[in-house]
Write a structure and sequence with these properties.
Residues 1-23 form the signal peptide. By secondary structure, the protein is an alpha/beta fold. 37% of the residues lie in helices and 10% in strands.
Length: 319
């Protein structure tokens, strides 16, 4: 942690003149003690802003706002290097491991509820390069571009190779500029893209240069189904390209499994909070529980990415 390092160096003016550098041994779990709880997540902000909404505020605070989960970064994040550095530094100060999601690929969500993204190839390269630089030597977990590979087929043929090249560039940036980050390329979910096809896409997108891949991001499939899919993708990478890869599972909303719908479906439930292991590298709350998938399902008035206390309560109760 930087504060501890600087405190030790303060005893010697000579030592203070030497640049401080973190060891680049690559394992963020060994540098931290548990996952970082984002104090400015949408649920946490809602809890602070609605103290009189009892007992719902207590319920959401206990079940969601005080749990470790992902911070999503995109074209709403302002100066991306500053935003990422600020977030990861806050986690570093308390020796916790932050979870970040890079979500700004051009043509994001193929123009759906979460459409948008960087305006050009060059803009994205600059953005993702600065994202990785904002982490630098601090420990972190990063999920790279949810849905970008699984939605490859919805792009015009001429744009598919460009997307693969951008994802490969993103992977290289984290490998080069964030040596203590475990980066995971998004690999869809258990029923979307066949495991062998996803292995081809992950390989083409440079997964060999980073820690691994992520499954079930913003979806509802059970941990068992997601682990089976992840293991099948890893086995396909091994048999076709000579290397297996570890993976993480988004368990934020998979407590009741999937009913086949993806957009604010009824009857879903919070899953296992962020932890190491569980049949994967990690089980993580990547999607923020209570944040809407779009104007659809049981919450039709809340745009994608905005928090709904009603949706949060549904997930807590499993209704």
């Amino acid at each position: 942690m930087r504060i501890k390092i600087l405190g030790l160096l303060a005893a010697s003016m000579l030592a203070l003149s030497v640049p401080v550098a973190q060891a680049a041994d690559g394992n963020p779990l060994e540098k931290t003690n548990g996952f970082y709880v984002d104090p400015d997540s949408n649920p946490a902000q809602w809890v602070r802003q609605n103290p009189g909404d009892k007992p719902r505020v207590d319920k959401i605070k206990a079940a969601i706002a005080t749990k470790a989960g992902g911070r999503w970064f995109g074209n709403w994040s302002g100066d991306i290097r500053t935003a990422v550095d600020t977030f990861t530094y806050a986690a570093d100060v308390v020796d916790k491991l932050p979870i970040l999601v890079a979500y700004n690929i051009p043509g994001r969500d193929c123009g759906g509820h979460s459409g948008g993204g960087a305006g050009s190839v060059d803009a994205y390269k600059t953005w993702i390069s600065n994202f990785a630089a904002g982490i630098g030597g601090k420990p972190a977990v990063v999920i790279i571009e949810p849905d970008a590979l699984a939605q490859l087929d919805c792009l015009p043929q001429a744009e598919r190779q460009t997307r693969l090249e951008l994802l490969k560039f993103a992977a290289a940036q984290f490998a080069q500029k964030a040596p203590n980050t475990w980066a995971y390329m998004d690999g869809g979910n258990a029923t979307w893209i066949p495991a062998a096809t996803m292995a081809d896409r992950l390989h083409a997108a440079g997964v060999s240069t980073i820690r691994g891949f992520a499954v079930n991001v913003s979806n509802f499939h059970s941990t068992q189904a997601s682990n089976t899919y992840g293991n099948n993708v890893s086995a396909a990478l091994s048999s076709k390209y000579g290397y297996p890869k570890p993976f993480v599972v988004d368990t934020s909303r998979n407590g009741n499994g999937s009913n086949g719908d993806w957009c604010n479906p009824p009857g879903r439930k919070l899953g296992t909070p962020s932890q190491v292991g569980g049949g994967a590298d990690m089980l993580l709350w990547i999607k923020v529980p209570g944040d809407s998938d779009g104007t659809c399902g049981v919450i039709r008035t809340i745009p994608a990415g905005e928090f709904s206390p009603e949706l949060a309560e549904f997930l807590i109760d499993g209704t």
